[in-house]
Design goal:
about 210 residues; alpha/beta; Rossmann fold; five-stranded parallel beta sheet; 8 helices; globular; disordered C terminus
């Protein structure tokens, strides 16, 4: 299923769908921001990062998502505009059907997913490859305290949720440790997505 498409007499290999997950504070958005410009300059087998549709205002320092009202979200959902949808903390999240089009054209795609929705996403797209971003609990606590969004009780709740990720299983699961610097974690994600040898920074340096 979703392996090959015949177009113009040629076999076009379907792209790979990567499903990035991890506890709040592990640095998923930072890693995506790191690899985005590097992926944009690849000429061979493009890797695209999909925007999420979320019923949440856009923040300058937050995720680069597409904001929808509840009514807009439900209208698009009714007309099958989403490949995946889920709800979390009174917000609605969607991954657009355009992702399926990109995959059909042979491009690989990365989406910022949800652990709770992974089982359903796998049923809809069996070849999905989850990428779990992890950090040690001590490091995670330091990062949560440094960003100052949660009080002590909320931080402990997030640490408990993060510990539950250790129990995650999936036949295609890939894991990245992000305990080090952003560059170290970003390079790990980049190499995983492109399957290449270590990047030559001089050759790929962005102006």
């Amino acid at each position: 299923m979703f392996n090959k498409e015949v177009r113009g007499g040629e076999n076009i290999k379907k792209g790979t769908l990567y499903y990035l997950i991890g506890a709040s504070g592990v640095g998923k958005d930072s890693l995506l921001n790191y690899v985005r410009p590097l992926l944009a300059e690849r000429a061979e087998r493009p890797v695209l990062i999909a925007h999420r549709y979320i019923t949440r205002p856009v923040e300058l320092t937050g995720e680069n998502h597409i904001q929808l009202s509840d009514a807009e979200f439900f209208m698009r959902q009714q007309h099958h505009c989403f490949l995946f949808t889920w709800q979390s903390h009174d917000l609605y999240y969607g991954i657009g059907q355009e992702v399926a089009d990109w995959l059909a054209k042979g491009m690989n795609v990365v989406i910022n997913g949800s652990r709770g929705y992974l089982e359903q996403a796998t049923l809809l797209w069996p070849d999905i490859k989850p990428i779990l971003v992890t950090v040690s609990l001590d490091k995670l606590q330091q990062r949560l305290e440094a960003r100052g969004r949660e009080n002590a009780s909320q931080i402990q709740e997030r640490l408990q949720r993060a510990a539950a990720f250790a129990e995650l299983t999936h036949p295609n699961l890939l894991t990245i440790s992000n305990d080090g610097s952003l560059e170290e974690g970003g390079e790990k994600l980049y190499q995983l997505l492109v399957g290449a040898c270590p990047r030559t920074k001089n050759r790929l340096q962005i102006p």
